Amino acid sequence: MPTRAADKPRSVTQAKGHARPRARSAGPRSKLFVLDTNVLLHDPTALFRFQEHDIYLPMVTLEELDHNKKGTSEVARNARQVSRSLEEIISPVEGDIPAGAELAPHSHKAATGRLFLQTDHVEKGLLPDLPYCSGDNHILRVVAHLQRRHPGRQVVLVSKDINMRIKARALGFPAEDYFNDKVLEDTDLLYSGVLELPADFWDKHAKGMESWQQDGRSHYRVTGPLCANMLVNQFVWQEGPNPFQAMVTAVEGHTATLVTTRDYSHLKNAVWGITARNREQNFALNALMDPDIDFVTLLGQAGTGKTLLTLAAGLTQILEQKRYSEIIMTRVTVPVGEDIGFLPGTEEEKMTPWMGALEDNLDVLNKTDDEAGEWGRAATQDLIRARIKVKSLNFMRGRTFISKFLIIDEAQNLTSKQMKTLITRAGPGTKVVCLGNIAQIDTPYLTEGSSGLTYVVDRFKGWTHNGHVTLARGERSRLADYAAQVL
Length: 487
Prior knowledge:
The protein has 14 helices and 18 strands. It has helices at residues 37-42, 59-67, 74-90, 135-149, 162-170, 201-205, 279-289, 306-320, 347-351, 356-366, 373-386, 416-423, 452-460, 478-486, and strands at 31-35, 54-57, 101-102, 114-117, 154-158, 175-176, 194-196, 210-214, 217-223, 235-238, 244-252, 255-260, 295-300, 326-331, 388-390, 404-409, 431-436, 466-471.
């Protein structure tokens, strides 16, 4: 069973020995972790994620880091960061590298093990059935060499490469995936932002209840056992003769304050001509239109209305309410099939082929005003396009967006580090909306549990200025809904 490399209680045990055992002895359950290059390229801080356990880097890992260090890609930046960290760790022990270098001084004591670099020769006779020219095979020979040299320790290979782990297990070597960046083991446990109230909720929570009217909405202060599990800005609902939909605005112990949501399914509350078609869409519009919510995440499969609702809310707050100055839209440019190569033109022209979803939804929004006529719709379309800017992720570092409505589409393809880079671009008065479907991840080595979208949903839940909704029902067409179910 794969284990999280930095997860002490599960199965990653102490690894306190090293290549030269005279400095200290390994405990009876100790392990020595051999890191594949892709682990470091995926998470440049992996060196400090193994707590009290020891790390071993084969020479081929260092060579592959050197091959990947050139360029401006995320992988190249990670390779350079790992190289800088290695130099900082190794420099104090230049005279005695085989004895290993302490990690504690460089990790604020988060990692208390030692780092070892390969300093001795590996016999060519080890694993003779594997081609010698392969870097992966060389790492496997290093694992075999360490097992022979330290028979009292369990040497474990850590790799993000599935085939590498399969080869290691076929040869009888323990191999694990690197799960330290995984937010959740089971994405079914991911915060949905929505809570159904039980049928007896009011019987158990209505005693001593306070209620009042403010800004045309009803407020309730209830006390009971379920309130302790509620989170701020979580949406709650209950079906029945008197349907109830509300948002949690405050939680103090076993007391929670609920405020009824605005009904965006009614035509009088339409947002740029768009009305909510189901409960979750109504909750999403409440979060998108709330000026006190600065960060919104919307999850859902294709056709649930994530992009359409977000654009409608953005345009309403820009052109009608004058709350924001313009929409900034960006997304990860990861192709589903073969890459079509370089694209001509300016930054916005290069991003245009990736923004098909934007064009499709603008067409829908432009047809909502039946009374405007053809000329009126054309003028509105020009006005809309003047307020929407399409930007590339590659040029986001160092920027600050003030009073913008920032939409990050296909956010499931972002790593947690990239997500942090984007969200921290927000200046005063800016609202950030992340859209995505964690079941459609195209970025290599990224999973549902380690996606940057999963990361921010889990980390932001309960924050006073955060809103999250998982959209469940598809509203695109009956064909799209059926295809999503059976294919």
